[in-house]
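Chaperonin ClpA/B
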Amino acid sequence: MKLLKRLAVPFAVLELLTEAVRRRPHSVVLFDEIEKAHRNVFDTLLQILDDGRLTDNKGHLIDFKNTIIIMTSNVGATMIINGKRKRDLDQLDQINMRVDDELKKIFKPEFLNRIDEIIVFHKLTNQDLKQIADVMLKEVSDRAMKSKNIKILVTESFKEKVVKEGHSLSYGARPLKRAIVRLLENPMAEKILNGYIKEGDNVIVDDIMGNVSLSVFKEFYDFECLV
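Structure:
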């Protein structure tokens, strides 16, 4: 179902929520940045979390027993960002406790008590970002193979450049996509348009002294360092 972004008007929440769940009762419902919602939204959520159902504006009873409700929040984000990069258990426990204290300052106990589990997402390490970059780069490679039969292999040094230029303490992994577009997709598109890269080619993408290099080969031999 369509994800519900941060909403401030209770009636709008009620109408969107009940209609979406009525149409698709087996759904995941996401409330983004729940701490910014109107206070009446919490009353609605309490009813759903208590009874597993909600009455809409037309008097229809909507069943929520087959839905999964996820709420995100930035409460405590600053202390997570300011934490050390190393993930030792003592530090994680301290952060979890401090985030829990912050949640209690923002949300009422009766609301928190109805949540099955609170998960604290800690800031991403370089290894996390490299794994995310791997997924995004594979998507680009798969598209190139499907549309132009072009095989793309990237070196570790290029991935490190993507991670370095696509990482932000404030935005996490979001800038990775923009970095891949700027460093790989746009140069690839330009070289396809000018005929340097042709259908069926094999392309090695590397970072050489800070500059992105796209090299074309008719065949790949033994490049174990490429992924």
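The CA atoms of residues 14 and 44 lie 8 Å apart.
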